[in-house]
DNA sequence: AATCGTCGGCGCGCTAGCGTACACAACGCG
DNA sequence: CGCGTTGTGTACGCTAGCGCGCCGACGATT
């Protein structure tokens, strides 16, 4: 590799680590493909691995019961899945579903635990990431409570676009309804509104972001705040 | 002190620590009184202290804007305030308001930072507490979205009662409305319903829990799940 | 070219909760 | 004792979103 960028840089939490830490991590991790729809964690089950997405992304979904479920967090290249392990807990808090196929670095729980005491930079970065996720969860409580479907849909599309790194997303209204915890036809109405305003275009399971700045405008402020928080704490 | 219980045991996170860790903590902390309505943290401001409530309790409130605010977490004898410090971040994520007057152990940010590396039991316990709070935040996103006011009110009263250690709570409908992020008269209706069912009694700013088991029944399952999670992870 | 499953548009009646506003009762203070 | 303040009950019209269900259109398969 002649580039100054190492393969590990593909995940932001692993980028620019001290060489010793990076090598130690890469020596004990493996690269795995994740397929769309794959379940990585079931709530309360034991977490055996942590995942650091490269070009995949994962939805974390809170389940109240069969009919009441909704996405509360998303992990892509900018983050990780398996926070519990950093906190010394071996159970998964929520359902983790691969929402964007791709690959990820995967590391065994025991290896990660062994690694962290000797990787102060990584360890610190992961703890700060946990802070970001917690803060975003806190504001999501308010966002899901106060903001309407159209704003939340816009926010969700932006977050997904960031992680998918593409203007075109493979998503049905049905799926979006599950993510936002609303009715399918509620999504249809919101999507029509966004399309009419020229912000997105869609057709049978494919949504294209046409006007990203406009979409940011249409989204609730929570999107911008989430970005600002991430940059403030992790960059 | 002839009792086998030490003063530190008044906060569950500090109870039954190894003597060395307990002494180190108690040597650098102070006991402070907290008065009702006091603001301990403002969002994004620097956190100078962590608090371990003894018989006080503190609401953590997410603020979207002047009109849209709602409580997302509560810290009493069973927990702490100032999680950011454990994660190596010095800013506060939310507004922290004293909701039940009483006292708390208070420790300076720098002292806590210095203490933790030599206090493995406490450190581990605090990390596991963070996991509990995160999981509760995640399910709160869903709870606030799907459950109705009456169920959420019942849950909130139970959580408050646990921390206040009293059947009688000093609360106005106005205040409850702010906590749950709803209209004042929405609380009045829910309170009437609960009183009619003989679960609570209230009068001008004082609410009394009459039938706790019944109230648990009336609350959404989130209350029981929160308790179960706490016990599973921290006991 | 016919078929069939998936996806999206739409309608209908309904409910929870909103914003606003007013009235009354209890309490605290001078 | 009278007064203002605070807390609670209630009413009215309104909106977002629900549950349900139907239909048409698209696209893949054969």
TrEMBL record, chains A, B:
Domain of life: Bacteria
Keywords tagged on the record: DNA-binding, Transcription, Transcription regulation
Ranges for domain HTH crp-type: 147-213
GO molecular function: DNA binding; DNA-binding transcription factor activity
GO cellular component, one term: cytosol
Key word DNA-binding present: yes
InterPro entries, per database record: cNMP-bd_dom_sf, Env_Response_Regulators, HTH_CRP, RmlC-like_jellyroll, WH_DNA-bd_sf
PANTHER family assigned: CRP FAMILY TRANSCRIPTIONAL REGULATORY PROTEIN, HTH-TYPE TRANSCRIPTIONAL REGULATOR ARCR
Protein name per the record: Crp/Fnr family transcriptional regulator
UniProt source species: Vreelandella nigrificans
């Amino acid at each position: 590799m002649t580039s100054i960028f190492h393969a590990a840089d593909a995940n932001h939490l692993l980028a620019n680590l001290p060489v010793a830490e990076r090598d130690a991590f890469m020596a004990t991790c493996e690269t795995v493909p994740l397929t769309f729809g794959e379940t990585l964690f079931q709530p309360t089950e034991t977490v055996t691995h942590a995942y650091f997405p490269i070009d995949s992304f994962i939805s974390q979904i809170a389940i109240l019961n069969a009919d009441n479920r909704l996405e509360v967090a998303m992990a892509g290249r900018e983050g990780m899945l398996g926070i519990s392990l950093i906190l010394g807990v071996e159970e998964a808090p929520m359902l983790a579903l691969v929402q964007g196929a791709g690959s990820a670095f995967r590391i065994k729980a025991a290896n990660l635990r062994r690694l962290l005491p000797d990787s102060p930079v990584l360890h610190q970065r992961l703890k700060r990431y946990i802070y970001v996720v917690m803060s975003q969860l806190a504001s999501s409580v308010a966002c899901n409570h106060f903001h309407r479907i159209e704003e939340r849909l816009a926010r969700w599309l932006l977050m997904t676009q960031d992680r998918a790194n593409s203007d075109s997303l493979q998503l049905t209204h049905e799926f979006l309804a599950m993510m936002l915890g609303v009715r399918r036809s509620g999504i249809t109405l919101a999507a029509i509104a966004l399309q009419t305003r020229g912000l997105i275009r869609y057709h049978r399971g494919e949504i294209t972001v046409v006007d990203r700045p406009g979409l940011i405008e249409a989204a609730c402020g929570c999107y911008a705040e989430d970005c600002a928080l991430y940059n403030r704490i992790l960059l």
